[in-house]
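Hi F.,

I've been meaning to write this up properly since the lab meeting, where we talked about keeping a consistent format for the predictions we share between groups. The idea is simple: the sequence comes first, exactly as it goes in, then the structure tokens exactly as they come out, then a line or two of notes. No screenshots and no reformatting. I'm using this chain as the first example so we have something concrete to point to.
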Amino acid sequence: MEHIDLKSHPKCDMIIEAAFDEFGEQGYKHASTNRIIERAGISKGLLFYYFKTKEELFVYLVEHSIEFFRENYIDRLENPEPDFIKRCIKLSETKRDAVLKNPHVFKFLRIYFSEDKDVLPEKFSSQIAEALSKFNLYLYSEIDTSQFRRDIPEKTVTNLIKWGIEGYERDLTERLKGIPFERIIKEDKSYWLEYYEFLDNVKKIFYR
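Output, unedited:
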């Protein structure tokens, strides 16, 4: 797909946000270009001037999302905190800041990762793999293990903490299914208080 420049159009933001919301709510299969033009307040001719098909629009959104995710999350993972749990908190808070900066992107990505990955060209797999590689390097490099319990191997402690956090996130994702994304953002503080309490208990289990 050729690079599409919408920035010169006065309704650029409305077009992109409408498309993000439609795909984020309906998924690729059920998304409607008719609803997108209604949301954006544009003509169908204008939408199809930039995007010949629904798939082309979807691919553009994924490309835009990966770029935003990399610039506002992955590329901000610098100077890792030595304490592993504090590092996990930093990761979560950096992600939260990115979500608040553009909730449309993450609303869309939530559906993409759960339902629509098979729609994409293969080239995106390498971009996602590269981002995940940088994420894992940040997560596991130069950890201060001196505070870990000594009766459990360090690698085991690291894995158990990581798996616990991943399990917590899966459980939270399941609980949030069907809840409008705007409500999740509005109640953000209560979810974070729950998360910090969870990590405090993890620390009591695995730290000396």
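Notes:
Residues 21 and 104 are 6 Å apart (CA to CA).
The two ends are 54 Å apart (CA to CA).

If this format works for you, I'll send the rest the same way.

G.
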